[in-house]
Structures are given as C-alpha cells and as structure tokens.
Design a protein that fits this description.
Layout (H helix, E strand, L loop, with lengths): L1 E2 L5 E4 L2 E4 L5 E4 L3 E4 L32
Antiparallel strand pairs: 1-2, 2-5, 3-4
Length: 66
C-alpha cells in the first residue's frame, strides 16, 4: 500500500471496498487507486479530481500566447 498525502491510496489488487451504505464494490486491477478526498465521480476509485485544475491559455492566430 502507498499513501500520497495529496492523492489516493494505492493498493495492490484485487480490492473490495465496503461503502458507508454497506455496498461492496470490487476492482480486479493489479493496482487500485482508492479516493481519499471524496471528490471523485467514480468514488471509491480515484479519478484524479484531487489535482488542481489549470485553465487553458487562449492563443492568438499566430500561435503565440497573449
């Protein structure tokens, strides 16, 4: 198991997770990223929602950023 303080917990699979409502979800992947921030749309699996988002810089017609 590997814990990143700014990201998910990486666990060697297969993994079963029991959710708050008692539902059991399973992943058969060889390494599973378990979400710890609860921002993931695929919770309990991490979808990298914890990463800061950056806006794209608009470019001009000549290809150089403004």
């Amino acid at each position: 198991m590997s814990v990143d303080p700014r990201g998910p917990v990486l666990v060697e699979g297969p993994v079963e997770v029991v959710l708050d409502d008692g539902t059991v979800v399973r992943s058969d992947r060889f390494v599973v990223a378990v979400c710890t921030c609860r921002r993931s749309r695929t919770y309990p699996w991490c979808d990298t929602s914890h990463r800061p988002r950056q806006r794209a810089v608009p470019s001009t017609e000549d290809g150089n950023p403004r």
